[in-house]
Automatic annotation (TrEMBL):
<dbReference type="Pfam" id="PF13229">
    <property type="entry name" value="Beta_helix"/>
</dbReference>
<keyword id="KW-0456">Lyase</keyword>
<dbReference type="InterPro" id="IPR006626">
    <property type="entry name" value="PbH1"/>
</dbReference>
<dbReference type="InterPro" id="IPR011050">
    <property type="entry name" value="Pectin_lyase_fold/virulence"/>
</dbReference>
<dbReference type="InterPro" id="IPR039448">
    <property type="entry name" value="Beta_helix"/>
</dbReference>
<feature type="domain" description="Right handed beta helix">
    <location>
        <begin position="150"/>
        <end position="304"/>
    </location>
</feature>
<dbReference type="InterPro" id="IPR012334">
    <property type="entry name" value="Pectin_lyas_fold"/>
</dbReference>
<dbReference type="GO" id="GO:0016829">
    <property type="term" value="F:lyase activity"/>
</dbReference>
<protein>
    <submittedName>
        <fullName>Pectate lyase superfamily protein</fullName>
    </submittedName>
</protein>
Amino acid sequence: MKRSQTSVLFSFLIVALLFNLNLVAAGQENQPSSKKPKLAGARPVIHAINYTSIQEAIDAIPDEGGVVLLPPGKFEIDQPLVITKGDVLIMGAGSATHIHNKNESGKDAIAIHPPADAKLPDGKKDPKPRIWRVQLQNFRVTGNEKSGRGINAKWVQEIYIHGVTCSYHGSDGIFLDFCFEDPRVSDCLITYNKATGLNTIGCHDIVVSANHFEENLDALHCMDGFNLCMSGNNLDDHLRDGVIIENTYGSIVCANMIEECQGRAIVLDRECYGITLSANVIAHNGSGIILDDAHGCAVSANTFTLLAADALRIGPKSGRITVTGNNFSNSYIGNGNVKRRTNDLKAAGLTLDKTRGVTVSGNLFSSVRPKAVEVIEPTTNVIFGNNLLIDVESDHKKLKDSIIKNILETAAEPVKPESKQADSK
């Protein structure tokens, strides 16, 4: 009798289990599948953790584009990661995703470019191939002294690099080569690269915003382009120059902190025009803003402090420049005190080097050396008015064929020669 009851109970449990399994299976059929999305038009997200290499995951992106998610971890490569498709997002887990290029023969870490066999709709080879809309986001990529560039993008339209740390490469950190439609680089950390931190050639409508650049050779090059909008960046400790702009027009460099470049803070050269340099703090560099070949430009509301030479220099190939509302100063903090020690009182002024057609108005020159304004002749057709000069010598009265008026010159407040204020750097 007990055996019969046990058999019935066992049979009942088997039936119940099978019934529940059928319910689970039915429920799973109604759940979204990562392999076959139910949403019309959707494509699966590619998780690189499920592939043997990051390149294999990138190669799995369909021709229409897609997303590759990189997991946390350190991933060593000795060949470039190559992206040849558009509408692609490569996204990591912040600095916890670390791609390290150990190649020592000059190869790049990441290469983005159209496929070599790109074709037109009629099947013919495309003579000007492009890819569109590639985004790199939230990961760290590093190299070594013998590796190539960190990110090398060519003919990529609307490229967007955001939240990427790009450091220690043997060449440029990021190189944008004729990525001429709307390139954007923002919120990145670009540091310790042997060449330029961000190097752009032939790019248009460029946004460079809220990045940190530190101890590259130069911070940024913008050449043969137009409409650079560079704002809110911090540049520090560069081994040569900060911002170099050549053969570029219609641009603005504003609200940046540029400090401790061994060379020049900002350079305009090779027929630049229509550029505004405004509201930057330019501190403790070898020199400040150098206009080697620039016309129709405005230099306004910048703070120049502790420059070793030439806070602002307007060269013989430059003219039609407006200089207004700038402050040229040392580390004076009031009551006869300077913040820096007496062996670090350097502060430079304005040099007009054989130029013409310049307006200098509404600026303050205080305790700069050797002169507030140095005039190298022939410099002509200058309006120098409504400037305040304190504790300086100046050549502005040498200006010929110029208008000089409403200049307020005041005696200096005595500066304590043995100030013991701590050096802030």
